[in-house]
Inverse folding.
C-alpha cells in the first residue's frame, strides 16, 4: 500500500492555472475511476473537490477540474484565487479493496 | 444539519486500547460505506479502514490490520473503531467520512489520539 505520488508543492499567481499530478500504479489509479481530490486548510477537515476522476460535488466551483491518463490523475485549478491556498490530496481505490492517499501538495498563491 | 461527530480520542499508553465513535445525523447513515482516515498533525492523510453499508464487508490498511476493528450500528447511526495494541505511530487525528468513492461526502471534525511510549 504505497502512497500515491504528488509534488510536495506548487505555486501560481492569482488568475493563473495550476495542475497537481497524482501518480499511482495499474493496481489503483490506472485500474479504477475512483479517484478523488481533497482540499484541506490548516486545522480543518478535508473537503471533497473532485470524485470519480472528474465529477464535482454540488457547490464546488467549476474552476476545479479533474482528469486521468493511464496511472496518473490530475487536478487543475484555473483562475487561481487567494482562498485556493491550501493542501491538496488525491486518493484512489485499489485492487486490494482498500484506499490509498497521496502524500499531499501544498499550493501557494503568490 | 448533515454532520459526523467523532469522540473517544485521548491519551493512552503504548499497548493500550481506545474505542472511537462517530455519530451521524442529517442523512441516511445506513446507505453509505464509511471510512476512518487519520492524519498526524502537520503530515498527510492516511486511510485506515472502511465498512460496507450493512457491516458485511470491511478492509484495513496493513499498518492496523489485526489491531483495529471497524464496526457500525445502523440503528444508532454510529460508526466505531476499536483500537487495540496501540503504538506511538498510531498517534494522529482520526476522521470518519462517508463513502470516499462518491460525492457529496461528509467528514467529521476529527478526534485526537495520543499514544505515549
Amino acid at each position: 500500500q504505497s502512497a500515491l505520488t504528488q509534488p510536495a508543492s506548487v505555486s501560481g499567481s492569482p488568475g493563473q492555472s495550476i495542475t497537481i499530478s497524482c501518480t499511482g500504479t495499474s493496481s489503483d489509479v490506472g485500474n479504477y475511476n475512483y479517484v478523488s481530490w481533497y482540499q484541506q486548510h490548516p486545522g480543518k477537515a478535508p473537503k471533497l473537490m473532485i470524485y470519480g476522476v472528474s465529477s464535482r460535488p454540488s457547490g464546488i466551483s467549476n474552476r476545479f477540474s479533474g482528469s486521468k491518463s493511464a496511472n496518473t490523475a490530475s487536478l487543475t485549478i484555473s483562475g487561481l484565487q487567494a482562498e485556493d491556498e491550501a493542501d491538496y490530496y488525491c486518493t484512489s481505490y485499489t485492487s486490494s479493496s482498500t484506499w490509498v492517499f497521496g502524500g499531499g501538495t501544498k499550493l501557494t498563491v503568490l | 444539519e448533515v454532520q459526523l461527530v467523532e469522540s473517544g480520542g485521548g491519551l493512552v499508553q503504548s499497548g493500550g486500547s481506545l474505542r472511537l465513535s462517530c455519530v451521524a445525523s442529517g442523512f441516511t447513515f445506513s446507505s453509505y460505506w464509511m471510512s476512518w482516515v487519520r492524519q498526524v498533525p502537520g503530515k498527510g492523510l492516511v486511510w485506515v479502514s472502511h465498512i460496507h453499508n450493512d457491516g458485511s464487508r470491511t478492509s484495513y490498511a496493513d499498518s492496523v490490520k489485526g489491531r483495529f476493528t471497524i464496526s457500525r450500528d445502523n440503528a444508532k447511526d454510529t460508526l466505531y473503531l476499536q483500537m487495540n495494541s496501540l503504538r506511538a505511530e498510531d498517534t494522529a487525528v482520526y476522521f470518519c467520512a462517508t463513502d470516499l468513492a462518491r460525492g457529496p461526502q461528509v467528514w467529521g471534525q476529527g478526534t485526537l489520539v495520543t499514544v505515549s511510549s
Chain B touches chain A through 24 residues (CB under 8 Å).
